[in-house]
Amino acid sequence: MLSYQVQNICRISRFLFFTSHRLCHVISAEECSLLLEHCVQSKSLKDGKTIHRQLLKNNYSVISSYLLDKVTCMYISCGRLDLARHVFDEIPNPNVVLWNLMIRAYAWNGPFEFSINLYTQMWASGIFPTKFTFPFVLKACSSLNSKGHGEEIHNHILRLGFESDVYISTALVDLYAKCGALVQAENVFQRMSYRDIVAWNAMIAGFSLHGLYYDVMRLIIGMQEIDISPNSSTIVTILPVVAQAGALSVGKAIHGYSIRKGFSHEVMVGTGLLDMYGKCGCISAARAIFDRLDSRNEVTWSAMIGSYVMTDHMREALTLFDYMLLQDCGTPSLVSLIYALQGCTKLIDLRNGKRIHCHILKSGNLSDLMACNSTLSMYAKSGVLDDAVRFFHEMNPRDRVSYSAVISGCVQNGKSLLALDFFRNMQFSGIDPDEATMLALLPACSHLAALNYGICAHAYSIVRGFVADTSICNALIDMYAKCGMVNIAREVFDKMDKRDIVTWNSMIAGYGIHGQGFDSLSLFHELRAIGMKPDDITFIGLLIACSHLGLVDEGKYWFNAMIQEFHIAPRVDHYICMVDLLGRAGLLEEAKTFIEKMPFTPNVYVWGALLAACKIHKNVELAEETSKRIQNMGPESSGSFVLLSNLYSWLGRWEDAAYVRIMQRDQGFKKSPGCSWIDINGTLHVFTGGDRFHPQSGQIYQKLAELLVGMKKLGYQAVPAFVFQDVEDEEKEHILLHHSEKLAIAFAIISLSPGRPIFVTKNLRVCGDCHDAIKYITLVTKREIIMANLITGSQSSLLHPQLHPHATLAGRGPLSISYGGVNIFSCCRPVGSSRTKSESSLICRMSAVSHHNRCLQKGFGASLISRASGLDIEVPGEAVDVKPDSTGEGGDEGSGKDRNGGSGGGGGGDSGENKGDEGSDESNAKRGKALLMSQKFTLAYAALVGLGGLVGYLKSGSQKSLVSGGLSALLLYYVYTELPKRPVFASAVGLGLSAALLVVMGSRFKKSGKVFPAGVVSLVSLGIGALVASSG
């Protein structure tokens, strides 16, 4: 026997040698079979192709199916499924073994759908699968998450009686679990007569995949109760769900079990353990496991780098990434590159970010959407917005994460208008925003003080159920506070179920910037009363509130308490607030001493706060000294120059003022022109001082002249000192009248309906004259006017909006938000324009969204948004009061007082229209009830008449009775169907038919002597006829 095998090996070697030198002779089928078997075992593709070629040369048409089977097996073993499939398709009648080999090959290597297709062909060709077929095809189904195909194959298994096979049942459990059908998976699992460790692992893996921690623990306990110990695969399966649940104590117990069983040294178990420790925040334990592993794969490196990133150890993550590259571990995995890129993003490390971007390019992973989004976020948050926008436009495809990243980057870099453009493009592309998108969009509305845009975003958040998220509500509070609607911000605050420290900080700061310092202090005490610990941001808002109210002693107390009681080290922002507090109160020397005693070198913003106070109190000497300090440090903006120049101008020192301006110009600083903007029905209109570029500038200047007359009657006098130019007082008064904020207010008055509140935003501080003038304008116009100013610099979290001074953004159009193909919120026509009752300024369609009712129950309904916007909001199916409140803010209510005590105007017509509509609705309701009742009686009458004709035919055999009864019933049914469409016509037909029936039936009853039934029928007929007629 041994000599025969040696002879075969020699013949195989001799054949392969000769074929390689093209000196081959014809060989027998037996020899070919041996040669192909040798190629299968050695996985020699080159030799196998040589043999296949020789078979084709000899005579392909007479090659036996047995040899083709061998050739197919050879290609399968060598991983060439395309060639194997080509040969397989030429075999006339492949046996079930070869079918199984092909199905298994595709199930393991893909494409997985080919495995299912082969199974279908096999079943259709009349070859029944064996118990070896089903585990492979079910694996292909689970890889595709194809539950439908899996259920069909499950039916075949039941039909063939293979469900008791442990391998097939395990494959079914794995399929259903991975497809999310956990109930079906557990049903199959419970019906198994015998369950081995693989079956238990499949069931545990399914629950772990879907994050069901307690079910996983239940299964782990259950398998141990029947004396089946978890193996290393079980440990690897359960560690992710333990990490997700943050169950550190359970994770430590699993770690101890792994050590006792000797699993901890295995790469997969070690990787799972370090990942669990990292996600539970124990980064030192994770690193210890990483260092003790004898061998590490790319998953291990990625898990360790990711753990550092998730625990905010960015430097360590990048250091480990560089160490991985030095260890020559091959090309970095995509996951490790993304984690490293996230570390660069959080560190704002552009240099390393570009380096990792190059690694992604070299590895060919730039087509991966997650890698692209991480790269985009890195460039955007590193301040290189131009590169980020360019990269965004090169991306294909893009998802909501891409748009959220670029919108957030635009806002962080002060390009809020560009952020709104990207958001609009996102809508046009059919991508629905998510929570992250709204968190990026709402700060853009805050920075621009674009209230209508913010209201639209609020409405969309309600529709999608985002208001259940604390971060969304925090952003809404911040947006409403910075848009001047602090009362609406407080309503959002009060309706929140869960508040974090950011919530409290936003509300405290909102009260502070609106001068409602006592409310801010009250809220701070409430924060302490519930046991929540304030942070450094809380005290910034508190100090701002004290500064605006002039509560010097209160501010000093809380500054010291922050250090001594709460052990919070003050940052430069706290010192700026304290200098501003002392400076506003006129304690300039104390403020200077406070700065000099700072534990670190004060920056230009600290001295700038003192300089602003010097201007307020006209202390020239200290202002000059402070200005020199700022010049020595290197000013970062034109603010210090402007303050000093204005102070000189105020005092009439025009030469000194001109010198400061020249010095500002020589140092390359340019003052941003003052501009104001207002949102009218979704369109931003921007004005500068003396602006005549607006299309309606003639009407605006005429309205200003009218307002000036009314203001002077009430005692207004212009303050020429606020014009820092050397001109006559009359010219100064003319300049003051045409300041940008006054132009914006005048435009709002001629554009908005009476009673609507006016909200104007300015990029600089409002001058004292405008501040006084706006108070008089509120009295003249009897409406609420809200002014907000966006100041650049570290004292404010707001960024400069970068509006073009002469841009009227009418081309942008109104903001509208759609969901599921339905426009759910849009800015439409203003209140008071020609419209039907069903149209309103803001239309909110919320009826088709699952979170709608829950959000309304929590108070985030249309009424709140209606009060925020001062506009009507219609919510189909919502039984809430959506009219403006009695303060007259909305302007549509007809009567009522506005906040200044004046009577609201222009509303009586709407009130009368509403009453008329109510009467019409009541009439329509009565008519509808009558119509419904008439239809019911008509249908019943038709049935009775038809039944009467049939009874008459059965009793007397009269065909006339049957025909007349049937025709009458058909006519009455016709009346029934036509009543809603043509009630008058149908009523006439019904009445005529009732009269005819009355005559015929009455005469018949009379002949037979039955007078009483004739009378009853007559009354019924007349009653039905009257009902039918009355429905018209």
From TrEMBL:
Keywords: Membrane, Repeat, Transmembrane, Transmembrane helix. The chain crosses the membrane at residues 937-954, 961-977, 983-1000, 1012-1030. Residues 715-788 form the DYW domain. It comes from Carnegiea gigantea. Residues 876-924 are annotated as: Disordered. One of its GO terms (molecular function) is mRNA binding. PPR repeats lie at residues 95-129, 196-230, 297-331, 368-398, 399-433, 469-499, 500-534. This is DYW domain-containing protein. Belongs to the TMEM14 family. Residues 901-911 have a biased composition (Gly residues). It comes from the Eukaryota. Pfam families: DYW_deaminase (PF14432), E_motif (PF20431), Eplus_motif (PF20430), PPR (PF01535), PPR_2 (PF13041), Tmemb_14 (PF03647).
